């Protein structure tokens, strides 16, 4: 089942499709489907608390993370500086002191 976007003018969740348009029954707003699809494709990476992350930010790890293929662990409270955002499941590319280069999931960090 596909979820329809909320109305951009009144934020109503009761939108429906009408040909190549989305229509809001509450305010009468109509907008093209291509416009909302391009807005969804511009992905925004957020941390575990909903803060928007950008390239160059510093983050703090909020959970012990086991490193696959090693007996090492990234401890809670480890600060990671100068992150890079990448596409994929692990959306943060970084270098951790004492461990090296690795990728993290944004759901396990908070913005510092």
Integer average pLDDT? 88
The number of domains is 2
Shape: elongated
Reported for the largest beta sheet, the result is: 3 strands, antiparallel
Domain Protein YjdM N-terminal: 3-32
Protein name: Alkylphosphonate utilization protein
Domain Protein YjdM C-terminal: 45-112
Pfam family, one: Zn_Ribbon_YjdM
Account of the 3D structure:
It comes from Geomonas terrae. It holds the Pfam family Zn_Ribbon_YjdM. This is Alkylphosphonate utilization protein. InterPro entries: YjdM (IPR004624), YjdM_C (IPR013988), YjdM_N (IPR013987). By secondary structure, the protein is mostly beta strands. It folds into 2 domains: about 40 residues, Single Sheet (N-terminal domain of TfIIb), CATH 2.20.25.10; about 55 residues, SH3 type barrels (Roll), CATH 2.30.30.40. The strands form 4 sheets. Strands 1-2-3 form a 3-stranded antiparallel sheet. Strands 7-4-11 form a 3-stranded antiparallel sheet, with no helix packed on it. A hairpin with a 6-residue loop joins strand 2 and strand 3. The longest helix has 9 residues. It is elongated, with a radius of gyration of 19 Å. It starts with 15 loop residues before the first strand and ends with a strand.
């Amino acid at each position: 089942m596909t979820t329809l976007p909320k109305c951009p003018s009144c934020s109503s969740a009761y939108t429906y499709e009408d040909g190549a348009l989305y229509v809001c029954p509450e305010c009468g707003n109509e907008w093209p489907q291509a416009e909302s699809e391009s807005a969804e494709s511009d992905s925004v990476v957020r941390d575990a608390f909903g803060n928007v992350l950008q390239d160059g930010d510093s983050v703090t790890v909020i959970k012990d993370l086991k490193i696959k293929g090693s007996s090492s662990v990234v401890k809670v409270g480890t600060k990671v500086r100068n992150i890079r955002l990448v596409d994929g499941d692990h959306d943060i590319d970084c270098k951790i002191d004492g461990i090296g280069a690795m990728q993290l999931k944004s759901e396990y960090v908070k913005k510092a």
